[in-house]
Amino acid sequence: MAQSFTLGIPHLWDELQTVQTHGLYWLNIDRTQDVSGLCRQTILAQPESTHVTLIEAGHDIQVTSALAEDYSQGPASLPVYRLTPTLTALMALPDELTRLMGPASSLFILLLPATDLTTLSADGINRWINHIHRWLQRCNATLLVISHGAGTDILRNQLAPLNRLVSGLASLRWQLDRWLYDVAFWCNERGVSAQQNIPLTHTSQGWQANVETTLPPPQPHSDEDSYLAHAAILEGAPPLSEHWHLFTSNHELFTAALAAQAATLVFSLMQSDQVDDLARQIHTLRRQRGNALKIAVREQAVVQRSSDERLLLACGANVVIPLHATLSNALVSLEGLQGHTFLRHVPANITTLLDALRPLKLRGYQTKAQFCTLLLDLLDNPLIPHDGRGTLASLRPVSGIDAEQVLKLCNLRRDGDLVTLDGQSLVLFLAYCRPHELDTALRFIFPLPVEELFIHRRLWHQDAELMLELTRMRSETPTQGPPPESLPPQPVSAPADTAMPPPRRVPRRLTLGMTSREPSS
To answer: Predicted confidence band at 103 (pLDDT cuts at 50, 70, 90)?
Structure first.
């Protein structure tokens, strides 16, 4: 029997967390701050005689300092090495690991930022994994790769077809009030498991699996054919049948829905300032009345920001019907909800959900270092869909205009929209703005035509591209002072006493003579 190791997660089936010799296992973690805890938990779960080696690549994530705290169990010794995550270094990794092999079976843990791999070509990743797989078959070792941060979903899609080379592929997903252990496939001596989602909770002892009872099959409800709707969504039409019940406000609809079980609820969204109240009402209904309710929101007057739509869906709405949809299209969308059960997880704390999905509570100019830090933290938020966080634009002014001068013309009105200076370029981040919407946004930001202000632009909107550009900007950040408009005025030296004042033009009064006009002959 091959020697095996464990991830050390209590109450989790061994079939989903045991790694065995000659295997390459891959674990993606949404949040970088969770890496230290899970890595520590895995290492401390190994017997004292186990030969474990930790290899850190990329940015320092403080794993070593976390392990140094209360290291009272686990392997007798733990060598820690650092690796530069380039393709050349990764291809040479098996030769380096061979020198680190112990007398018995060895467990190697490689901590690798996902963005460092997503910059490699698919062919380069495949060649490296093939190289690692061949080395593991020859050696008495196990390699556990823990990748983290933005880009883990991209890696998951690239690794899923390589199930003959990778023995296990799973993800640790953050869902605000819990974590989800999402297993794509996991192979060990106990068999092969696939498509498993296990809720995890975090305690002072680390992560552990939740022991949850299986939900019973859905039962028929007496109100599953009922429609409770705001009267405005029918555009003045009367109730369509005896199953339709109309209300004059969202609050009245919410009060009536507190007694519903499986009815279809249709809220009206007239103004942007209604979003928070509506999100709280939907969250309350979904948490209290269960997953059989069908909840829809129809835009009535204004198109909502994608962040607002995402918030409503995260709070428990099944669908948001866009403003341009006709009444006929809206009714078809409602018919499509019939028979559906809401399956997404809705966190219990609405305040945490609002804070996590709202744009940054900042706008306007930020120093270059602060600008990069804020956006890198935003990229580390797994609740925001990948490649949908916003657009980063580097704008170079035309000849004769400085970036500082253009900055004074920049008027950012939305929370989450930031600007900074990078050399002779103005760098804008527009939250939740898609690339094809950039020209429209710039017309509202600058009072002058954009083509008269800038001669060149560069855009980034995918997570991997944003990570690379922000990392480059942060590494090149010099000591930067306050924005140009807040710089103290330069002192003006007084003129010398001997200096002659410039001649001054004194107006003189002129009287125009009045002459009679001679008649023409």
So the answer is: confident
Q: Tell me, what's the pLDDT at 302?
A: 72
Average pLDDT, integer, range 49-75: 74
CB-CB contact of 445 with 438 (8 Å): no
DSSP code of 318? S
pLDDT digits (tens, 9 = 90+) for 20-39: 999 999 999 988 888 888 99
Q: Which amino acid is at 374?
A: L
* φ, ψ (nearest 5 deg) of residue 289: -105, -5
- Nearest Cα neighbor of 367 from 490, 486, 456 is 486
Do 67 and 37 form a contact (C-beta atoms < 8 A)? Answer: no
Bridge partners of 5? 19
Q: Are 336 and 359 in contact (CB under 8 A)?
A: no
For residue 115, what are the β-bridge partners?
none
∠ CA 349-352-354, nearest 5°, is: 110
| CATH code for residues 360-479 | 3.30.70
pLDDT tens-digit series, residues 169-215: 999 988 877 888 999 999 988 888 888 888 898 888 888 887 654 54
Picking from 172, 216, 215, the residue whose alpha carbon sits closest to that of residue 39 is: 172
Using left for φ > 0, alpha for ψ between -120 and 50, and beta otherwise, residue 3 falls in beta
| Alpha helices by DSSP H, 380-418 | 403-407
- What CATH class does 227-354 carry? alpha beta
DSSP-derived 3-state class of residue 212? coil
Report residue 401: phi and psi, to 5°. Answer: -120, 130
Host H or E run for residue 285: helix 275-289
DSSP structural state of residue 473 = H
Question: Residue 79 forms beta bridges with which residues?
Answer: none
Mean local confidence (pLDDT), 408-422: 90
Domain range annotation of the chain: 4-209, 227-354, 360-479
Domain 227-354 and domain 360-479 have a common topology: no
Q: Does domain 4-209 have CATH number 3.90.1150.10?
A: no
Query: pLDDT grade, residue 521 (50/70/90)?
Result: very low
Q: CB within 8 A of 214, min separation 6: which ones? A: none
**Residue pair 304/357 in contact by the 8 Å Cβ criterion:** no
Statement: the pTM of the whole predicted model exceeds 0.70: no
Write down the pLDDT at residue 213.
Answer: 45
Element (H, E) at 88: helix 87-91
Is 96's pLDDT higher than 50? yes
